[in-house]
Specification:
about 140 residues; alpha+beta; GMP Synthetase, Chain A, domain 3; KH_dom-like_a/b
C-alpha cells in the first residue's frame, strides 16, 4: 500500500493525497493552524477510514452469515489527548444495521469480529484509545 501527499503551496495548509489505487483526497487545516477550512482534517480522515473499515467488515460478515442486511451506518464519536501527540483516547462506534429478520446476536458477533480480528484501523487505534460500541437494528 502506498500514497503520496503533496502540499498545495503557500497561502494555506491544504494537501492533496493520491492513493496507490489512483484516487485523490484533499485535506486542510483549521484557520488557527494556517489552513482555510476547505477539506477534512487529517485526523478526521483517520476516523473516517476507521469507520469505513469496520462498516465494510460488518456488512461482509453479515452477508456471509446469510443475514438479509439492507443498510449499515456507523457513527463514531472520538476524544483526543489534550497534549501532543493528540492521539485518540476514546472512540465509540454506534452501528445502525437495517434489514429483515436480523439476528441481534449475529449482528453483535459481526461487530466484535471486526473490532477484535479484522479491522486493522480500529485495532491500531485501540493501542491508544478505549473502544466501545453499540448497535441498533432497524427492521425494513
Amino acid at each position: 500500500m502506498e500514497c503520496k501527499i503533496s502540499w498545495m503551496g503557500p497561502g494555506g495548509m491544504s494537501f492533496a493525497a493520491e492513493t496507490g489505487s489512483g484516487h485523490m483526497v484533499t485535506m486542510d487545516g483549521a484557520p488557527e493552524g494556517g489552513g482555510r477550512d476547505l477539506a477534512p482534517r487529517p485526523m478526521e480522515m483517520v476516523l473516517v477510514g476507521t469507520g469505513g473499515c469496520t462498516a465494510y467488515d460488518v456488512v461482509m460478515i453479515l452477508q456471509k452469515s446469510r443475514q438479509d442486511v439492507r443498510g449499515c451506518t456507523v457513527a463514531l464519536q472520538a476524544d483526543r489527548a489534550s497534549e501532543d501527540p493528540k492521539v485518540f483516547t476514546k472512540v465509540n462506534f454506534h452501528f445502525t444495521v437495517t434489514g429483515r429478520n436480523l439476528n441481534p446476536s449475529t449482528v453483535e458477533r459481526a461487530i466484535n469480529l471486526s473490532h477484535d480480528k479484522y479491522c486493522s484501523a480500529s485495532i491500531m487505534i485501540a493501542k491508544t484509545a478505549a473502544l466501545t460500541h453499540s448497535f441498533d437494528i432497524v427492521e425494513v
